Amino acid sequence: MNIKILGALSAVALLAACTTPATTPVAPGGSVATIVPGSQEDLVANVGDRVFYDYNKSTVRADAKGTLDKQVAWLAKYGSVNVQIAGNCDERGTQEYNLALGNRRATAASSYLKAKGVASARMTTISYGKDRPTAQGSNEQAWAQDRNAITSVR
Fold first, then answer.
1. Distance in angstroms (rounded) separating the CA atoms of residues 99 and 81
2. Which end of the chain is more exposed for a tag (fewer CB within 10 A), N or C?
3. CATH number, domain 35-153
4. What is the CA radius of gyration of the chain?
């Protein structure tokens, strides 16, 4: 009798171990995608890794503050994670101008995070100017996507 109960409990435990939790993301095709907490994938999926800027501006926009505030909370949760903030521009303007503007954008995002309590030692900044576009095309829709600061786990 004890063997039957033990066998039934073992079967239930095996079935419970094989189920996929509701919060586990499922990739296309039905395979389970595992997101490691504190990883770049976690940042992108649960917080957002980029903020956008207006044309020729490096001021943090109101809509960007929500994303940056989520990054602050995420960085507080994962205190050992360091990040790099990359400033980017659209294709218009000279290489030199866009490198300087990208630097101001990265610095603006970093300064916002620092003002909210993220240690500056956990952040680095870099400017890619117009060298790393995120959108294809030479129109306002593409340019708006290229004017950003992207936070990456290091």
1. 26
2. N
3. 3.30.1330.60
4. 22
- With bands split at pLDDT 50, 70 and 90, how would you rate the model's confidence at 17? very low
Half-sphere exposure of 75 (CA within 13 A, CB side): 26
Confidence class for position 31, pLDDT limits 50, 70, 90: low
| Cα(44)–Cα(118) distance, integer angstroms | 18
Entry pTM: 0.78
All structural domains of the chain with their residue ranges: 35-153
d(CA 110, CA 149): 9
Contact 102, 127 (CB under 8 A): yes
DSSP for 24-60 reads: S-B-TTSPBPP--TTSHHHHHHHT-SEEE--TT--SP
Mean pLDDT within 20-34: 56
User: Cα separations (Å) of 58 from 6, 47, 133, 140?
Assistant: 65, 21, 17, 17
